[in-house]
Records
---
Amino acid sequence: MTVILIGALLIVAGVVYMADAVLRRGRLSDPAPSPAKPGPTLEPRRRGLGFLGLTQNWPGLLMVAIGVVLLLSVVVL
């Protein structure tokens, strides 16, 4: 039972860590109007998909992977 709880907590903690890592990298919106689009927009300029990289998210991915291994070890045993 303890292994299941630890695995579930690691998965939740990994997902929360990755979400927090994305939010810590800066504002998601730019209130200043850009020359191409009139008015404020929620689309940041030149943000790209860099927030999905492994270099920033490896601790969260590691927590999720360990949690999955713990949950699967209970099923196999």
---
Amino acid sequence: MEDQAVCCYLHPDRETGIRCTRCERPICPECMVSASVGFQCPECVREGNASARRVRPRTVAGGSVARDPHLVTKILIGLNLAVFLAVKAFGNQVVTDLGLYGLCSKYASQCIGVAAGPDQWYRLVSAVFLHEQVAHIAFNMLALWWVGAPLEGLLGRTRYFALYMLSGLGGSALVLLLAPSSLTLGASGAIFGLFGATAVFVRRMRYDMRPVLILLALNLFFTFTWSNISWQGHIGGLVAGSLIAVGMAYAPQERRALVQWGTCAAVFVVTLVVTWIGVTQITG
């Protein structure tokens, strides 16, 4: 009795003695794809590649690895520069429209300032992108690039953007609470949040803490010794950014996203409470 010839499942006219190591279907030399052990058929190779693509690489904090790991930092720098150019082009009107005023101040027969009502609360965010002096924006944007770009690579775009914005908002809220009578502007609060987050992740990854601590100490020294610097904004951003970074760096693996975004939500709620207390203190 003769054995029946085995033919390639893709080419029935070709006899073969080779089978796919995954599905065991017969394959001819033309269909064989070399694998680590034996050969595989084209369909199994495609399925394996699709599975590999579905497993996306992650950053240290669990974010998606982007093709350009510094894109958000570049966009933030671009926004700050665009607002700065608008200030130079249109003058004090832009500062008046975007600056953080706490008290209700009369301007062009209108009451402006966060205390004027919820429609003015946008100033808590808009002031973070506002600069008047060349030295101010130059220093802040250099710091944003040096500190922010590596941090964005660690966190991923979404987590990094949340950290930046919540740090800036935290700085604005503390200004409103402790120094509502002054005009405040600049990205320093958000950048101090990045300083704090960098320190947390350096500690988490067991790197040498001395460089980042020296950098942070120098910036705090300038904060409290130089004139016309809002220490309230710097400290508010530093505290907010550090707390968010602790939640992102030390979240347990099995509930990482829940803990990380829960921490962001908690900091946001606390910021709103501080803002409400500040407004109540002013209007009361």
